[in-house]
Amino acid sequence: MPYADSGDDQAFPDVATALKNIRDLPSLPVVIQKLMTMMQDPQVPASRVSELISYDPGLASRVLRMVNSSAFGFQRQITSIQHGMMILGFNSVRGIVLSASVLKLFEGKSHSDGLDHEAFWWHSTATAVTAKLLAERLRMPHLLDDAFTAGMLHDMGKLVLDVYFRDHYKHVLEDGFNLSHRCHGKEFFYREEDILGATHTEVGAELGARWKLPVPIQEVMRSHHTPTAAPTEHRPLVMLIALANAIAAYLAKDVPSRIKSSVLATLPDGVLDYLKLDEDQVKALANEAEDSIEAIGHLFYGT
């Protein structure tokens, strides 16, 4: 049942009303919409794309910071957007651009009794880096282009609920639920459902559709806690992100070792069977992911 005694003037609205009320969400900036369209055309010169990105210095800076992070493992500094595109390819840069621009839309909207936005973005980035690693290690190269972007955006509905319905969402975060290890698993998902009558996956899917994100990304936003319900054609990516999400939650730096749960504790049913993995293999992947994401904390904070 939705939370009915919050102490606020109104209880949290039902899902349909909630989705209707977030119609004033920020749209993707015009430059990003143009970039997304342009980068779907393989005939577009990299110079045109890099020039458009450079019109937004903040976006260009974020893209270069991510390209030069340890997540991509380049031995020498990438100094220009065009150089980064030549090395990474259009699809990878498109994912980085989209992720960086979405982050910018919600900058400065954090509040003291709400979701920890810094921990949220760390988790999102850690999930993205882990998803890219998993696609490589599990020999799923066809998912490489979408894995990073899907990992970055999978929890966007959570941020929307926190920013636009903060007086209600704070009740989900009570009793210690604003710890990273408890904000990214099944327990938190069901807590949203019980208290709000809505979940971040429903809101995230609506947001993804409104922003006209690629359908596989929308499905990840909708189904990463219920991956067996995803359509067959999108299930591999959803399963991959479900595992990356669990690994990133397990590796969160602010989780005291005395309360750190198993890497499998937040994993939805069906993921291990689908990916043909056992617990030891997952632990090995988590250890490798830890090495890959160790230095990502600076990516979105600082210059």
Give the secondary structure arrangement, pairings included:
Blueprint: H1 15-21, H2 30-38, H3 46-54, H4 57-67, H5 81-88, H6 90-105, H7 117-137, H8 144-153, H9 156-164, H10 166-169, H11 186-196, H12 200-210, H13 215-223, H14 235-250, H15 271-275, H16 279-293
Description:
The chain is mostly helical and 303 residues long. 56% of the residues lie in helices and 0% in strands. It is built from 16 helices and no strands. It has helices at residues 15-21, 30-38, 46-54, 57-67, 81-88, 90-105, 117-137, 144-153, 156-164, 166-169, 186-196, 200-210, 215-223, 235-250, 271-275, 279-293. Helix 3 crosses helix 5, helix 5 (81-88) packs across helix 6 (90-105) and helix 8 (144-153) crosses helix 14 (235-250). It is globular and about 50 Å long.
